[in-house]
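Reopening this ticket.

The earlier resolution said the output was attached, but the attachment link was broken on my side. Pasting everything inline this time so it's all in one place.
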Amino acid sequence: METGFPWGSTPTVDLRLGRADAIVLFDWLMSTDLNTVPITHPAQKQALVDLLARLEEVDIIESTDEEIAAAQAEVTQNMGW
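Inline output:
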């Protein structure tokens, strides 16, 4: 998290996310009715909306069904749980 940020600006966190993870998250967020996602605080829903907005800024929004399926396979490949 940034420190010493100017008054009124929002501190940010840089997060590196694998392309496959980003595609899977974007696909899920686009296909999910966020009004039905269980939350315990409205900020949780807003954070998901904010994440979706950030994912829309990268080059994954035009992913094909084949790319989504490949990303899902890649992400589930190393599941250890």
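Reporter confirms the inline version is readable. The chain has a mean pLDDT of 89. Residues 43 and 79 are 29 Å apart (CA to CA).
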